[in-house]
Specification:
Distance between the termini: 56 Å
Structural class: mainly beta
Mean pLDDT: 75
Strand content: 35-45%
Length: about 140
């Protein structure tokens, strides 16, 4: 009998200080900065407003539980049409996996299709918007 895949939802704190590469650093700085004043208006695309959780499932290849996908919730309206890059981080701030997905509302699912990442090794996640908002018109 095949081992039944168990799934669990686990919250991961968004650690905005962690950056996967220099290119993401520039994008994240732009995404987190609102140029219109001290407080961003409701619906503005501000990364810090997004909550990140991830799903885990049993993976026979590693003999344990691996992160299978991440779910972004609380995505502001202004982020729709952009692309998000999500990086799972280990305890030493090393990148364990990166995946990208188009932003959808009100939530976005980011599939982690590469090599399995053991859930026990994940200590944080970084998030960046890597494309500009679509032009109006």
């Amino acid at each position: 009998m095949a081992h039944e895949h168990a799934r669990a939802r686990r919250a991961a704190g968004v650690t905005l200080a962690w950056l996967g590469c220099a290119g993401l650093a520039v994008s994240m700085a732009r995404a987190m900065t609102w140029d219109g004043g001290e407080a961003a208006p409701p619906g503005a695309c501000v990364v810090s407003r997004i909550s990140v959780g991830y799903d885990v499932g049993y993976d026979a290849a590693i003999g344990g539980y691996a992160v299978t996908r991440a779910s972004l919730s609380g995505v502001p309206d202004g982020c729709e049409g952009r692309e998000v890059a999500l990086t799972l981080r280990g305890s030493g701030d090393q990148a364990l996996a990166e995946a990208r997905a188009p932003v959808t509302l009100p939530s976005t699912v980011v599939a982690l299709d590469g090599a399995p990442v053991p859930a026990e090794e994940v200590s944080g996640v970084s998030l960046a918007l890597v494309t500009d908002a679509p032009a109006a018109g």
